Amino acid sequence: MQSLKELIDRYAKPGRVDWIGLRPARRAEMVPVQQVSLGPSGLEGDHGTSEKRAVTMIQAEHLPVIGAMLGRGVEAALLRRNLVVSGLNLAALKGRQVLIGEAVLEITGICAPCSRMEEELGHGGYSAVRGHGGWCARVVTGGVVTLQDAMAPL
Question: What burial letters (b/e) apply to 21-42, b meaning 16+ CB within 10 Å?
Answer without folding.
Answer: bbbeeeeeebeebeebebeebb
